[in-house]
Amino acid sequence: MATERLSFAGFLLFASSLFSRVATGEPPKIQPFTFPMQVELGTQTSVYCGLSKGTRPIEFSWKKNERTLKSVDGKIHILTPGGSTVLEIQRLGSSDIGNYTCIARNSAGEDAYTSSLVVEGKVSEEGAVSI
């Protein structure tokens, strides 16, 4: 009889621990990412930000140099398929150089990871790109 009470008490403790984990969820953890090393002016690049863990739903956002980044038609595209996000930058220019931060957030917390984009090439006085 004492063993049954102990087993039932152990089960209740386990169930309450499991319920609290499910109720609050697991905070997201971003997998480290980098931009390609040799990106040229006038080309395009993309970077993938995925999670190693985290309870859904997850909300993603991007920042460039600490400022919120939004999709801009024909220039910047932010795609969020399920548990990841992809940042695409087209027609790279010198103004695109900077630190890009992926932020993942859910009810249990948030995580962020930053990577630097470096662009190679130079712009002529007429504004033409030379590589």
Automatic annotation (TrEMBL):
Q: Which SMART domains match?
A: IG, IGc2
Ranges where the Ig-like domain occurs: 28-118
Question: What keywords were assigned to this record?
Answer: Disulfide bond, Immunoglobulin domain, Signal
Pfam families of this UniProt entry? Answer: I-set
Instruction: List the signal peptide residues.
Output: 1-25
Alphabetical list of PANTHER family matching this protein: CONTACTIN 5, IG-LIKE DOMAIN-CONTAINING PROTEIN
- Descriptive protein name: Leucine-rich repeat and immunoglobulin-like domain-containing nogo receptor-interacting protein 2 isoform X2
